[in-house]
Amino acid sequence: MSLPEHDADIAVPAHRGDPFAEQRAMARTSAVVDRSHRGVIAVPGEDRLGWLHLLLTQHVSELPADTGTEALVLDIKGRVLHHMVVAHAGGTVFLDTEPGGVPELLDYLQKMVFWSKVTPRDATAELAVLSVVGPDTPTVLAAAGLPVPQRPHGVLAVAGGGFVRRMDWPGVDAADVVVPRGERDIWWGRLTASGARPAGTMAFEALRVEALHPRPGLDTDDRTIPHEVGWIGSAVHLTKGCYRGQETVARVANLGRPPRRLVLLHLDSGDEHLPALGDPVSLAGRAVGRVGTVVQHHELGPVALALVKRSVPVEAELSAGVDERAAPARIDPDSMPPEDGAPPPGRAARIRGRRT
Question: In order of start, what are the domains of the chain with their CATH numbers?
Fold first, then answer.
């Protein structure tokens, strides 16, 4: 299996010998992925929730202990700068974010401290993220001696340091096991001994793409607003205000529609010449979008996330890529969100079937 290269995950294994088998384990049983290259910021201090509430897109002022969520940081025009997964545990809020994203994000947070009683710090050297994915996730966690939080974003402390955070993506069930970095290999061994198949980031990314979950820097560009990529609700709370970029979020939600939308493209291409990250999506020779993450899925074949203009019809005959990488592409109709925001009937039925 060959894929267009990007260096976001170069620090951890891409696969453990059989990427398709690793995907199937995530879909049918369980697998564990080393995501220890993700950056982690810790925010202790008695003002942590109220202070973060003013900076993040999510409503966190009353985030209960032992609870997680997702959030964004936007620029003044409402464009996405950072995405983070949040955990409130042990009197500290932990924000884990994209590899290499901590310096810029931490710099922004530290500049916004002023008189607040918070001390944000880079905790990447302290904590490592391992992700268990698959319907057997609860069984694996329990067998490894770990707590099993409630779905979808429950958080429970791990004896000796770290926490487990239940997730609702990239598979039908998942959990992030965030442990002391020096104990990463120990916990990896316990999780694999408890039934989780060792897997790499290629399998994780394939399921993430199927789930239509965007990744900043790959599936977003410097113009992306949250509405375009499905982050309203999961990472953006529409009724809170007082954060940078909130005016754009409210205006688009109340008065208009985002100019683009995230879709799943099926690619009519072999292994050798797949589109690359950032390549154009074209209709009748005119660029109408941008290719994001490209994967080889164990059931769907070659697929990609793409940002396309809202005016592009679902039945359009598209091309993704340039030169020898150009391939016919079509939009998966189930990836097109209806205007009322409800899941498309086909995708909703597929999700229901997998969760029964």
Answer: 19-38+125-210 (3.30.1360.120), 39-122 (3.30.70.1400), 259-355 (2.40.30.110)
